[in-house]
Design brief:
four-stranded mixed beta sheet; 4 strands; single chain; Collagenase (Catalytic Domain); alpha/beta
């Protein structure tokens, strides 16, 4: 189920639901996934409450313990729109990239501790689903650029 709390030009719940089904299958997620597309403030509250990080982020994933539900994904439409503008594509396209990333987390991947396994899988699935640079590839490129430029990450 997709809930759009923020209206986004060119994005319909039905189209996002169709892509979510494809991404769920590709990532090997079993069970239903609930997707909330909202603003920075709500994602920040969720991030603070569940991850103890008092800042907005682009996507959060919450695995479920129910066998019929794989979990929930929360995406900040505001952050997605900013990323899309910066990267030169539509917010709808950015939402797909974030959805795939969230699905991989629901399938058990954790890029903070898996020595690049999630990044490699995300790259393969991104190409299979017709998406450009994955979230992890973009972060890696950005961090490398900042390190070369001598700026803090």
């Amino acid at each position: 189920m997709v809930i759009l709390r923020k209206r986004i030009a060119g994005v319909s719940p039905a189209a996002l639901e169709r892509f979510a089904r494809r991404a769920r299958r590709a990532a090997g997620v079993r069970g239903e996934v609930n997707i909330l597309v909202t603003g920075d403030a709500e994602v920040r509250r969720l991030n603070r409450r569940f991850r103890h990080k008092d800042k907005p982020t682009d996507v959060l994933s919450f695995p479920a313990i129910d066998l019929h539900c794989a979990g929930d994904i929360a995406i900040s439409a505001s952050t997605a729109a900013r990323n899309a503008r910066r990267l030169g594509h539509t917010t709808a396209y950015e939402l797909k990239i974030l959805l795939l990333h969230g699905m991989l987390h629901l399938s058990g991947h954790d890029h903070e501790s898996d020595q690049g396994e999630m990044a490699r899988k995300e790259g393969r699935l991104r190409r299979a689903l017709g998406l450009s640079a994955s979230l992890l590839e973009r972060a890696s490129a950005r961090n490398g650029r900042l390190a070369r430029e001598g700026r803090p990450r």
